[in-house]
Each structure stands twice: as structure tokens, then as C-alpha cells.
Specification:
single chain; 5-stranded antiparallel sheet; alpha+beta; 9 helices; 4 domains
Length: 620
């Protein structure tokens, strides 16, 4: 706003201060409302930012709770951790297995000493050349790799470096021991088992590939150890274990990853008695995810409450978003889902969050009954997981069937044939009187040992008989998930009735209980429904969420306020210019009137002096 610095000079009045005061008053009157509206809009933008952050944190907790893998964790325990360790993937079937370590594998080690140089003179240094050629090294049935040795660079040190850096090296490591008797070459297989057994053939530049001179000093043939030039210090030995009485040999290491589907057993030391591998569901992981969900929901509830809090007579200020419909909508929709009842596939008593120990109080906060949740996860793990994390799609599972109870694992099961189908493939196990397989344990072992087993694993569990003792049950679990691996058992019972509750027919499908279905159809769980609510407020996938929409609206309001402020500023500038011109005219008018007045006073003064002179003369 421009000003005329000489304003008031003519009149002697402080007209500039008067103009500035009028403009300041008008500016305050016009801009105070705009500034207040802008401040409120900025506060609400900040409040919506806080709300979005709280909703996002809540959504993060839903990602874990809604992930089916959270409920597919497995705990794998070894009763003899010094002898064998165990790990399990998320889709491993639960159960217990008897394990013995018959032998741990051993890695092969070859050594060589008393080397001679190209003149057939014993070498004293690993830097002395011994002769060139090509080494072809093969481990078991793995692809061989070649190492070319130049005669000029054929010292033991250079040969070691060439072997270790060779392209295609399948797991052979060479080194030098500088002993008192001279350098000793050591060649180790990195892994145990006969599949890593080393054979070294030589194409010697001296054309003799088997003598004890030149590069052929490194030849080794495990099928002709006496005729080899290197010495076998340790032979390659295979690891061997028994699982549920069945012997399993590994010729490629101490890890057995294909004996029990999705379970890995590592042999560490030989056992003197059978131990147990136990696969259970990881309840702690699921409990932690539920606890995080409850904490995040309560944090969001607190944030919503603070932002929408009404002021009171005690002086407490209201929340920035008090009365805002977004808060009411968010709270209402979340509470609606919290109270959802899912009964399509859920058993009675496991259809709401409150059924699993998650309750909501009058303040809208959740409280977790950890003991109730833990108990249900122990007894109804899959039902709890489905209530929370079902994604609305069919879930492929490892089908699991359970037999009726038997007195002990050695109870006789009858005679006849068990034909077990896994999908479209089947195999038959004959059960005969007087044979080892005419017991519940024998049936288990026969199924697992069947050469044409189509993909089913049998195990035995012990259950409480209610009288302080235990009974035994046979568990059959499909190795693969889905309907394509569904299990069915037909029986040809020696008593002529293939479906009654006597003899071998007790193991027919009609008499088995399905613990886990091969495919589970489930509606959306509570978590997915909560995620749908949250998505509406957060947006995503090209869609603008409700919170961002409100923020964008407030930003547009601020832009409009800036436009209004500019208009008002231009109006004030014009108003100031008009006032300045008007007061400048007034200043000029007053200055002219003052000048005229001064002139008249001067003339009157002159007339008065003349009159006084004349009067003085007449008296004389």
C-alpha cells in the first residue's frame, strides 16, 4: 500500500496517520475472518494427517493378522537335540515321529605327500613345480569339472589355487600342510556322503597318467584305492536314520528333507535309543499377531476419541475434528465389523471376536483374554485362524484322517487288504495274521514303507482314555494339499464285512474322522472385512480415500482463502489510494485557505496601521 510522504504538510495535520489507521482498521475487519478460517483449515489438515497415520498403523497390524501364514507356523521339537535337529515348513502336518540316528555322514578326505619334481627329485617346498596336465575331478554322480595345470605353474600351491577357483567346482577344497617331512596336499569334500565322493583322473603331459611322477601323483580312484597315488584318510560315509522304524539313507549329507513331507531332520550324532520329533502349530506367533491387533485398534480408538472430543465447562478444549462425520463413520464401520457374526463355516461358539477372547468395552476399546485365546488355539487352531484370516477363497490343505481308538500301538487290526487312494493314484497293503504288520504300528510302518506309496504319511498319536491311561490312533496325512491329494481307504476284510466296526474294516474311510479337509471353502474373515473398511478411508489402487478427499477439500479451501485475501488486498490498496487522494485534496484546500487567511490578516493589519497613522496625524 503506497503512501504520500508529504501528506499533511500543507495543513499541518497528521493526515497520513489518519489514513493508515483507517486502512489498518479495515484490514483487520476483512482479514481476521480469513486468517481464522485458514488457521482452522490447517489445523484440520494436520488432524486428518494424524488420523491417517493412526489408521495406517492399524492397517499394518491387520496385514500380519490377516496373513494365513501367521496361522501356518509350525514348532518342530527334537527330544534329543544333541543327536538330531528338526525344522518344519508352515504346511507340515502336525504329529509325532520316532527317530533314531543310525550313522552320521562323513566327508571324504584325501591326502598326498612325498611329491617329486619333474626330475623325480623329492620336493621340500610347495612352491616347486611337479608337472602339468589336466585334472578331471568328479563327485559321485555330479557333473565333473576340469582343472588345467601349466607345467611352468604346477607347484602344489598353484595347483591348490587352481582347484579351489575352478569354474564348476562342485564342492572340493584343497589345501597344503607344511609338515616336517615336506608339503602335504589335502583335498576335502565339503559335504558328507557317497554322492560327494571324489574321483581324480589325470591327463599328464608326460603321457603316463598313473605313475608316481608328474601331475599323475594326484590321481585317485575310490574303486581302486591301492592303485591310487593319493591316500584316503577319511572315506565318504552316508548318513542313516530310522523314522517310525523305517530306515532311510542319505548319500548327499546329514540333512533328510524328504522323509516326512515339509519336515527337515538333520543327523548330528548316533543315538542309543529312539527319540521323538514333534510337529505342533506355532501358537505364539498367532497370539502375538492378535495382541498387536488389539493394541493397534485401541491406539486408533484413542486417536479418534481425542480428535473428536467435545469441550466442557471445566475448560477442556474440544478436539479439532469434533462433530466431524469422518470420525463417526470410521468408528461406526469398525464397530460394526467387530460385532460381525460369521456362521457360514464356523462352529458354534467360534463365530465372533468375543468367542475367542476379544471383547469391546463401552469406550470402544478392545480387551484380550489371553488365556481364553491360548486355550482355543490349542484346541481349535484352524477355526480361530479361519474366523480371523479367511480370505474368501477356497483353502487347499493337507487332508488328515483319524482312526478310531485302539488300546495300544500293538493292538491287532485284523486281516485283509487296505487300498489307499491319494487322488487318482492308489496302492494296496496286505495285512496278514501272525505278521508284524497285523498291529496298528505295523499298519503305520507298512504304509510308510510301501514302494508305491502315492503320497500319504501315517503316524500314531496317543490320546487320553479318560481313565488315566492312553489309547492309540492312526493318523493319515496327505503329503500334498488340495482335492487332488484327497485320501480314501477301501478295505477287503477277511470277515466279509468291509465297513463295520470290527476287524480291518475299522480303517475304512467310512469309519475315519476327517480332522483336516483337503479343501476348505470359507467366507471372508473379520480381518479382511476390517481391511475393506480401512481401504475406504486410506484409499489405494488409484482410488482416493475418504481422509485424503477431506484433506484435498481443505487444501482447496485454503487456496480460495488466498484468492479472497488477494481480492481484499487489492480492494484495500484501491481504498488507500482513494483516501490518500481525498486527504491530499483536503490538505491542499486547507493550505490554500490558510494562505488566503494569512493574506487577509496581512491586509487587515496593513489597513489598521494606515488608519492608526492618520488618526495620529489629525491629533497633531
Amino acid at each position: 500500500m503506497a503512501s504520500i510522504s508529504s501528506l499533511g504538510v500543507g495543513s499541518g495535520l497528521d493526515l497520513q496517520a489518519l489514513v493508515d489507521g483507517l486502512i489498518a482498521g479495515e484490514q483487520q475487519r476483512k482479514f481476521t475472518g480469513l486468517n481464522r478460517r485458514e488457521a482452522i483449515a490447517n489445523e484440520r489438515i494436520s488432524a486428518f494427517g494424524l488420523l491417517k497415520s493412526s489408521v495406517s498403523l492399524f492397517n499394518d497390524s491387520l496385514l500380519s493378522l490377516g496373513n494365513v501364514s501367521t496361522f501356518q507356523g509350525r514348532n518342530a521339537a527334537s527330544s534329543d537335540a544333541d543327536s538330531f535337529s528338526v525344522s518344519a515348513a508352515g504346511n507340515a502336518a502336525t504329529g509325532s515321529y520316532s527317530v533314531e540316528v543310525v550313522a552320521t555322514g562323513q566327508a571324504q578326505r584325501l591326502t598326498g605327500g612325498s611329491f617329486v619334481d619333474v626330475t623325480n627329485t623329492a620336493i621340500a617346498s610347495a612352491d616347486t613345480a611337479i608337472g602339468g596336465g589336466t585334472l578331471t575331478i568328479q563327485q559321485g554322480g555330479q557333473p565333473s569339472f576340469a582343472v588345467t595345470i601349466n607345467s611352468a605353474t604346477s607347484s602344489l600351491n598353484e595347483i591348490v589355487a587352481a582347484i579351489n577357483s575352478a569354474e564348476g567346482n562342485t564342492g572340493v577344497e584343497a589345501s597344503i600342510i607344511n609338515a616336517d617331512s615336506g608339503p602335504v596336499l589335502v583335498i576335502n569334500a565339503n559335504d558328507v556322503g557317497t554322492d560327494n565322493q571324489v574321483t581324480i583322473s589325470v591327463d599328464d603331459v608326460d603321457t603316463n597318467n598313473t605313475d608316481a611322477q608328474g601331475l599323475s601323483q594326484l590321481s585317485f580312484d575310490p574303486s581302486d584305492i591301492p592303485g591310487s597315488n593319493l591316500t584316503q584318510a577319511n572315506a565318504a560315509l552316508d548318513a542313516q536314520i530310522t523314522v517310525n522304524g523305517q530306515t532311510v539313507t542319505s548319500n548327499s549329507g546329514n540333512v533328510f528333507s524328504d522323509v516326512i513331507s515339509n519336515v527337515s531332520i538333520t543327523a548330528l550324532a548316533e543315538t542309543t535309543s529312539a527319540g521323538t520329533v514333534t510337529i505342533t502349530k506355532d501358537i505364539d506367533q498367532a497370539t502375538s499377531a492378535v495382541s498387536d491387533f488389539v493394541d493397534s485398534f485401541n491406539a486408533l480408538t484413542t486417536s479418534v476419541k481425542d480428535l473428536g472430543r467435545a469441550g466442557n465447562e471445566d475448560g477442556a478444549t474440544g478436539g479439532i475434528l469434533v462433530g466431524n462425520s469422518v470420525l463417526r463413520s470410521l468408528s461406526g464401520q469398525l464397530r460394526s465389523v467387530i460385532f460381525n457374526v460369521i456362521d457360514e463355516t464356523q462352529p458354534e461358539g467360534l463365530r465372533t471376536l468375543s468367542d475367542i477372547g476379544i471383547n469391546i468395552d463401552r469406550e470402544g476399546r478392545l480387551a484380550l483374554d489371553s488365556s481364553k485365546l491360548a486355550s482355543l488355539l490349542e484346541t481349535n487352531f484352524d477355526d480361530v485362524a479361519r474366523l480371523l484370516a479367511a480370505d474368501g477363497n477356497a483353502i487347499a490343505q493337507n487332508q488328515q484322517l483319524q482312526s478310531l481308538t485302539y488300546g495300544t500301538v500293538n493292538s491287532e487290526v485284523g486281516q485283509g487288504d487296505l487300498t489307499i487312494s491319494v487322488g487318482d493314484t492308489s496302492f494296496t497293503v496286505a495285512i496278514s495274521a501272525g505278521q508284524a504288520n497285523n498291529t496298528l504300528q505295523g499298519v503305520r510302518d507298512s504304509i510308510n514303507a510301501a514302494g508305491d506309496n502315492a503320497g500319504v504319511t501315517a503316524s500314531i498319536i496317543l490320546v487320553d482314555d479318560g481313565l488315566g491311561g492312553t489309547n492309540a490312533q492312526l493318523i493319515l496325512t496327505a503329503d500334498e494339499v488340495g482335492d487332488e491329494s484327497a485320501i480314501a481307504i477301501t478295505v477287503v476284510d477277511s470277515d466279509g464285512d468291509n465297513e463295520d466296526l470290527f476287524g480291518l474294516s475299522r480303517l475304512a474311510s467310512v469309519n475315519l474322522t476327517e480332522n483336516v479337509a483337503s479343501t476348505l471353502d470359507a467366507p471372508s474373515g473379520i480381518v479382511l472385512r476390517l481391511q475393506d473398511v480401512v481401504a475406504g478411508f486410506l484409499g489405494g489402487g488409484g482410488e482416493v480415500g475418504i481422509i485424503d478427499s477431506r484433506t484435498q477439500g481443505l487444501t482447496r479451501d485454503i487456496d480460495r482463502i488466498d484468492d479472497e485475501r488477494l481480492v481484499e488486498q487489492n480492494r484495500l490498496n484501491a481504498f488507500q489510494d482513494r483516501l490518500t487522494r481525498q486527504f491530499a485534496g483536503l490538505d491542499l484546500l486547507v493550505a490554500n485557505l490558510t494562505a488566503s487567511g494569512d493574506f487577509l490578516l496581512s491586509q487587515l493589519s496593513s489597513i489598521s496601521q494606515i488608519s492608526n497613522s492618520r488618526n495620529s496625524g489629525n491629533r497633531n
